[in-house]
Amino acid sequence: MPSTQDASSTNGLNARVHRAVCVALPHDGKPTKIFGDKPSEFISSLKTASLGWVNFMVDDLGKDAAEVAVKFGFSDSMVPTLLKGYHSAFEDRDTEMGIMVPAVKVSKLDVCIFPLLILIRKDLIVTIHSRDIERLILFSRYADAFLRKLPERMGQQDRLTMMLVRILDENNSHNFEHLREIEEQADDMSELLLDPETPRMEIGRKIYELKHALITYLNSLWRTMDVLHSLRYGDAELVTDNPKVLAKVGLLVEDVNRQISLSEHMSEVLASGLEVLQALYNNQLQTLNNRMALTMTWLTILGTAVLVPNTIATVIGSIAGMDANTLMWYITVLFLCTINATYLAYWWVKRWVRLPKGA
To answer: Which domain holds residue 28?
Structure first.
């Protein structure tokens, strides 16, 4: 007889090999789990079940999800309506309900948000997602045990809501795991900041990518929060009014709030990192300005050392052999040109150069 761990491993493998998994709870009997690739493989089991769950993976969510939903008895307009939402949507139609929540996937600093569709009827929950993400693998392993442990005296709405909360909780937990990946990238960036030889542009680019990844992740959390609030306060017909069961939704809200707080704290840390980067850049710029000023000072000194003797030699060479009359005109023109040139330079500086006060 296989062990529990072996059975769980087999279930996890089957969940990855097949496109869909179905767990159904008959009116009298133990829950059954079926793996398959088409909706028709699960219809007979769901017809005799008091509660069922199907997780279906499709190649193209926009084209295939609506077809799958119709085969499970949902209206053909439900999926297109949900997909019009921005990362999340909540559609209550009394006898059926549709939810779209964001499913996050992170590869280094590339954060992608994919839709996870949750379709609900009085005795069935169908989750649909694309092949780009893996979702509800853990719940598919233990969904039969989850249904078996539901109290028999529990009402149908309570059971349905409890299973919905469990599905949303696993999706949130999976999303939260990706925040750790972003934190690891932030730790790598800290190592770059410790190296004074790291190019400023590389640090700036890294901080921008981290900031963008966090903003995208935070966006998914806020979209999830919108759905949870609609679920908790929307008074949907398929959702229970039992305060104890609705308190589970409140716990999900608190958990998402904690994730938002952690993400915003990391964003503040990155913002301080940008300030540090700007301070480093300003220090480097000031150091460069000081070096340029020192260079200009020495060039001025060297230029003066060359210019003065050259000017004296030019003047002496020019006046040699002049009579008194010509010498007087020469000195007068030289003096007037010097005065005019000095005044012109002074006027230009006063008009076009912004000097510090008191200069």
So the answer is: 6-280
Q: How far apart are CA 43 and CA 114, in angstroms?
A: 27
Read off the tokens for 129: 């997602």
How many CA atoms, within 13 angstroms, populate the side-chain half-sphere of residue 16?
8
* Domain membership flag for residue 132: yes
| Number of Cβ within a 10 Å radius of residue 312 | 10
pLDDT of 7 reads 44
Q: Which residue has the tokens 């599905």?
A: 167
What is the CA 243 to chain-centroid distance, rounded? Answer: 34
Number of domains in the chain: 2
Q: What are phi and psi of 57, to 5 degrees?
A: -110, 130
> CB within 8 A of 32, min separation 6: which ones?
23, 24, 26, 45, 144
Q: What pLDDT is attached to residue 306?
A: 62
Pairing of strands 97-107, 89-92: antiparallel
| 33 and 21 Cβ atoms separated by less than 8 Å | yes
Point out the residues of the chain with pLDDT beneath 50. 1-9, 12, 358-359
Q: pLDDT tens digit string along 65-119?
A: 999 999 999 999 999 999 998 889 999 988 999 999 999 988 888 888 999 999 9
Residue 20 DSSP SS3: strand
Contact of 214 with 266, CB cutoff 8 Å:
yes
pTM for the model: 0.73
C-alpha closest to that of 187 among 284, 93, 266: 266
> What does the alpha-carbon distance between residue 53 and residue 253 come to, in Å, rounded to a whole number?
23
Same-domain pairing of 194 and 325: no
> So what's the pLDDT on residue 308?
56
What's 136's domain CATH number? 3.30.460.20
What the block records as the tokens of 50 is 């008091």
Same domain, 342 and 239: no
Asked if 50 and 168 sit in the same domain, the reply is: yes
